[in-house]
């Protein structure tokens, strides 16, 4: 059953006027970026004060570091937004809550967005940040020997591709947290037909994939489609969160099953009654606060030893 908080949440963000719906897609995207920024306070609530909140240059990639203590392990967070919008600002409250409750430092990545910067620019930025953490993290008061990665939606796709590539170069990560990750560029799963219309649908996801990866041939690469990887063995232990009323629900579940089949420890949790994007909306969803704290506890168990 759809939770009443879903309908309330969909009413918060400013919708494009009729004339903009007939405008060029790029103009619509700029409007969506502004609308997300404008609704940030209403959707995400007040900021938790932390001892350390600082913007850093991570090898040329802007990031924001959150920490409650020195020497903490690092959770590299890659935000969602269809590879086209979202920022460290729109995910600030979620990152603060995770840092506050996990005992880990959180490094939020402000990667380059499409269509200004198409694939593989965003992936390159994430990998640059991981290299920077290993080389320079100690100088910023964190422990670069214990690194997890995670992200939501488009950020989940970037995070798990980066995790696989880290495995392949013998610098494996310690854990990954994937929140309703975008896994299938073909948008073929049944959940698109079953639960479209709760803030995300097949048409908008296809547009996001096509904007991020303009070449159709590239969308079959394992660096774009995580399930195209020949072997998932040795991937980091995984917490994977899906939402009942999310079109990405089934592809996330398929990826969890594929990781399990490859022998990867996986906890897959489906939150009932909620839709895509709920986790960052801490002011609107009871489930968002539960999910953020679940992520924090998982990271504490995985990295604090």
Gist of the model:
The chain has 11 helices and 8 strands.
Question: How would you sum up this structure, described in words?
Answer:
The chain has 305 residues and is an alpha/beta fold. Helix content is 39%, strand content 20%. The chain has 11 helices and 8 strands. Strands 1-2-4-3-5-6-7-8 form an 8-stranded mixed beta sheet, sandwiched between helices. Strand 3 (72-78), helix 5 (92-102) and strand 4 (105-109) form a beta-alpha-beta unit. Helix 5 (92-102) packs across helix 11 and helix 6 crosses helix 7 (154-168). The longest helix has 18 residues, at 286-303. The model has no long low-confidence stretch (mean pLDDT 97).
Keywords:
39% helix; globular; eight-stranded mixed β-sheet; 305 residues; alpha/beta
The amount of beta strand, in percent, is 15-25%
Between the first and last Cα atoms, what is the distance in angstroms?
Answer: 40 Å
Structural category: alpha/beta
Average pLDDT rating: 97
Q: Give the strand order, joined by hyphens, for the main sheet.
A: 1-2-4-3-5-6-7-8
Q: Output the helix-strand order.
A: HHHHEEEHEHEHEHHEHEH
Give the secondary structure arrangement, pairings included:
Blueprint: H1 4-10, H2 18-21, H3 25-38, H4 40-44, E1 52-58, E2 61-67, E3 72-78, H5 92-102, E4 105-109, H6 121-136, E5 142-152, H7 154-168, E6 175-179, H8 191-195, H9 202-212, E7 238-245, H10 249-261, E8 266-275, H11 286-303
Helix pairs in contact: 5-11, 6-7
């Amino acid at each position: 059953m759809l939770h009443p908080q879903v309908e309330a949440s969909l009413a918060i963000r400013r919708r494009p006027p009729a004339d903009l719906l007939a405008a060029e897609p790029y103009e619509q995207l700029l409007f969506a970026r502004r609308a997300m920024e404008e609704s940030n306070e209403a959707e995400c609530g007040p900021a938790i004060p932390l001892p350390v909140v600082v913007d850093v240059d991570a090898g040329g990639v802007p990031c924001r570091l959150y920490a409650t203590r020195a020497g903490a392990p690092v959770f590299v967070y890659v935000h969602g937004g269809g590879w086209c919008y979202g920022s460290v600002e729109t995910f600030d409250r979620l990152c603060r809550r995770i840092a506050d409750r996990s005992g880990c430092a959180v490094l939020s990545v402000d990667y380059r967005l499409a269509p200004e910067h198409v694939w593989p620019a965003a992936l390159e930025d994430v990998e640059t940040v991981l290299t920077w953490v290993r080389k320079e993290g100690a100088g910023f008061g964190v422990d670069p020997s214990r690194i997890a990665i995670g992200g939501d939606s488009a950020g989940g796709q970037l995070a798990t591709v980066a995790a696989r590539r880290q495995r392949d170069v013998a610098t494996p990560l310690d854990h990954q947290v994937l929140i309703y990750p975008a896994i299938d560029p073909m948008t073929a799963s049944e959940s698109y037909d079953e639960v479209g219309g709760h803030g995300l649908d097949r048409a908008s996801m296809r547009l996001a994939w096509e904007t991020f990866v303009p070449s159709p041939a590239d969308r079959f690469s394992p660096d774009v489609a995580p399930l195209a990887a020949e072997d998932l063995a040795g991937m980091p232990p995984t917490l994977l969160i899906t939402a009942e009323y999310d079109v990405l629900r089934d592809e996330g579940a398929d990826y969890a099953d594929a990781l399990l089949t490859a022998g990867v420890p996986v906890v897959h949790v489906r939150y009932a009654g909620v839709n895509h994007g709920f986790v960052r909306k801490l002011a609107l969803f009871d489930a968002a606060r539960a999910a953020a704290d679940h992520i924090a506890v998982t990271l504490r168990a995985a990295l604090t030893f």
